[in-house]
């Protein structure tokens, strides 16, 4: 599910089967580059699908685990976490497009909406504030990852999901893994930010 290369397929639908969104703009097959290169309308299905594939991968696993427990089976509590990780890896290294996918921010947001919704929404708020204030999506994404890792230390943010302990170790580990992974995927953006050449909304990109 995570490996569905939404931006790549949408770009081909819009501009023909030989068109590859990874040849234009930031060379990334994610929402931001789709919006910049193709505009708002093609970006909308990318938002919807990339978010939902991240959300439904762990959600389906949660349903399966609940069914297992209801029928006297084992408690596969780890299954939603593993499915969430696989969805993000599938997005970033999609087998449908030469293992060159996106950075996983939107899909990761969908994953955490399913397994830790309060933490996910607070991290999204950080992304929104940073993106609007700096005009750089990359700054918002990196900041949101840092917030995700930090907020995951406070398990009481999800009291309805995990009332038995204040810090849910599985979510904590996944949050830190995802945060490090997504920030690493932004290494080129970090270099451009340091060089002052990052492309931001409402900003002219500096030439080097």
Automatic annotation (TrEMBL):
Protein name, UniProt field: Glycerol-3-phosphate acyltransferase
Organism classification: Bacteria, Pseudomonadati, Fibrobacterota, Fibrobacteria, Fibrobacterales
Function field: Catalyzes the transfer of an acyl group from acyl-phosphate (acyl-PO(4)) to glycerol-3-phosphate (G3P) to form lysophosphatidic acid (LPA). This enzyme utilizes acyl-phosphate as fatty acyl donor, but not acyl-CoA or acyl-ACP.
Subcellular location: Cell membrane
Annotated metabolic or biological route of this protein: Lipid metabolism; phospholipid metabolism
Bilayer topology annotation: Multi-pass membrane protein
Record field: transmembrane: 43-64, 76-99, 105-129, 136-155, 167-184
Main localization, broad class: membrane
BP term (GO), one: phospholipid biosynthetic process
Known catalytic reactions: an acyl phosphate + sn-glycerol 3-phosphate = a 1-acyl-sn-glycero-3-phosphate + phosphate
InterPro entries in the cross-refs: G3P_acylTferase_PlsY
Organism field: Fibrobacter intestinalis
Known partners and oligomeric status: Probably interacts with PlsX.
Swiss-Prot/TrEMBL keywords: Acyltransferase, Cell membrane, Lipid biosynthesis, Lipid metabolism, Membrane, Phospholipid biosynthesis, Phospholipid metabolism, Transferase, Transmembrane, Transmembrane helix
Similarity field: Belongs to the PlsY family.
Cellular component per GO, a single term: plasma membrane
Entry keyword annotation includes S-adenosyl-L-methionine: no
Top-rank EC class of the record's enzyme: transferase
EC number: 2.3.1.275
GO MF annotation terms: acyl-phosphate glycerol-3-phosphate acyltransferase activity
């Amino acid at each position: 599910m995570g490996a569905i290369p939404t931006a790549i397929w949408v770009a081909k639908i819009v501009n023909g089967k030989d068109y590859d969104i990874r040849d234009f703009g930031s060379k990334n097959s994610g929402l931001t580059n789709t919006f910049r290169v193709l505009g708002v309308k093609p970006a909308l299905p990318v938002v919807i699908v990339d978010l939902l594939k991240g959300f439904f991968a762990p959600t389906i696993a949660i349903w399966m685990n609940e069914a297992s427990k209801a029928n006297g089976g084992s408690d596969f509590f780890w299954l939603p976490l593993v499915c969430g990780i696989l969805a993000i890896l599938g997005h970033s290294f999609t087998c449908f497009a030469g293992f060159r996918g996106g950075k996983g921010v939107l899909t990761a947001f969908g994953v955490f909406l399913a397994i830790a919704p309060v933490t996910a929404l607070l991290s999204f708020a950080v992304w929104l504030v940073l993106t609007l204030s700096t005009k750089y999506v990359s700054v918002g994404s990196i900041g949101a990852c840092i917030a995700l890792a930090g907020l995951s230390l406070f398990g009481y943010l999800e009291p309805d999901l995990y009332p038995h302990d204040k810090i849910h170790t599985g979510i904590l580990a996944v949050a830190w893994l995802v945060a490090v992974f997504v920030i690493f995927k932004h290494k080129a953006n970090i270099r451009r930010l340091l060089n002052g050449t990052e492309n931001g909304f409402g900003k002219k990109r500096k030439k080097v």
